[in-house]
Amino acid sequence: MGSKASLLLMFTGTLVFGAAGAMDAQDLVFLNATVIDGTGAAPRGNLTVVVRNGKIAEITTDSRAGAEVIDLNGRFVLPGLVDSHTHILSPEAAERALHSGVTTARVPGDRYLQGMGTRDLIRGGHVAGPELLCAGGIVRPVLGEFFISPFPEFGRYLNERLTGSENVSAVVRALLDRGADVIKVGASERAGLSTTEPRRQEFSQEEIEAAVREAAADGKFVAAHAHAEVGAEAAVRAGVRSIEHGTYMNDRTLELMKEKGTYLVPTLAIMSPLGDPETDSANDIALRIRTWHMQTALREVVRKAHEMGIPIAASTDGSYAEGSGSARVRVQHDMEELVSIGMTPMEAITAATWTGAQLLGVSERTGRIDVGFEADLIVLDRDPLEDFRVVYEPLVVVNNGDVVLNRYFPNPYDER
Question: Half-sphere exposure of residue 307, counting CA atoms within 13 Å on the CB side?
Answer without folding.
Answer: 9
